[in-house]
Write a structure and sequence with these properties.
about 290 residues; 8 helices; globular; binds fe (ii) ion; alpha/beta; four-stranded mixed beta sheet; six-stranded mixed beta sheet
Length: about 290
């Protein structure tokens, strides 16, 4: 599906529910990939699981480009969109920055975690698509670290410290974990109101369970990768799939019978080092061969 500029769109083809994350369009190589990203069918939907970029203008360019091509685009923020980057003329911080992005998406016709959850009625449906913004709370700590302070101390000792510490401001919350907990509580209430007879696709920038972070090259980085408070959400909220990114390790793992699909592109130095070119976007529905 990537770089198929010369393949005409099949307007009669069955629609696909597709997903991608971590486009990081500040890199020209990644920007080119987004510029060439096309649906297979005119009715394809695209889920964008965060880390589109850092600058508001870059994020807007990417989401507008995708919205012009896909029938529906659904976005959830990554940590990078929430940075107040020194190169960005938009100086908003924290929640104000998030709400600014939500307003931008609404202008573009992109669905956000603040909008009614859309229902995919295509092949494999119906499923409720729930874009989530939950952040992290430093509970995925390194072995032996009993508290956030101990986990962070380990990170600073090893030099593996996420740039969020200096660029992702939690305003008006006192810290990032408080923002996370407010998001978790509000989102949990909303998901609990869904019709339990319809399955969900849960999309969040971070995995809802810790297990996928076990393969990180630097285990200290897991602190910035999710929260233990969502460990049973894929079961409680009837997920047909969980879609995430952030780890830059594209793969599918299974938890309680639910596929967790990491759909990232990642940095050029990462995807260029792999033997095969990136497969973008990834298909979520209909389920293909080798996926239950
Ligand atoms: Fe990323
Ligand atoms: Fe990220």
């Amino acid at each position: 599906m990537c770089d198929d500029r010369d393949v005409p769109l099949d307007r009669g083809a069955a629609p696909n529910l597709l997903a991608v994350s971590d486009l990081h369009v500040a890199f020209p190589e990644n920007r080119e990939i987004v510029a060439n990203l096309r649906p297979e069918s005119a009715a394809d939907w695209l889920l964008v699981a965060g880390d589109v970029g850092e600058l508001i203008a870059d994020i807007e360019w990417a989401l507008r480009t995708l919205r012009e091509r896909f029938a529906t685009v659904v976005w959830a923020p990554g940590n990078h969109e929430l940075w107040t980057h020194r190169a960005d003329p938009v100086r908003l911080r924290g929640e104000q920055r998030y709400l600014h992005l939500v307003e931008m998406c609404r202008r573009l016709g992109v669905i956000t975690p603040e909008d009614p959850y859309p229902v995919w009625e295509g092949p494999g449906g119906p499923v409720t698509i729930a874009p989530l913004f939950l952040l992290y709370d430093y509970t995925f700590r390194p072995p032996g670290a009993a508290t956030k302070a101990a986990g962070l101390a380990r990170a600073y000792e090893t030099g593996v410290v996420c740039s969020d510490e200096s660029m992702l401001h939690p305003d008006p919350y006192p810290n990032r974990e408080s923002w996370c907990w407010a998001r978790v509580e509000a989102t949990e209430r909303r998901l609990a109101q869904l019709d339990s007879g319809i399955r969900t696709i849960l999309m969040n920038h971070f995995p809802l369970v810790r297990e996928p972070t076990r393969v990180l090259r630097y285990p200290e980085f897991a602190q910035w990768c999710g929260t233990e408070r969502t460990a049973d959400w894929h079961v409680r909220f009837n997920a047909a799939a969980m879609v995430y990114g952030h780890l830059h390790i594209p793969r599918t793992t299974w938890h309680d019978g639910v596929p967790f699909q990491e759909v990232s592109l990642g940095y050029p130095r990462e995807w260029q080092a792999r033997r095969d070119p990136p497969v973008l976007p990834q298909r979520i529905l209909p389920v293909g061969c080798g996926q239950g």
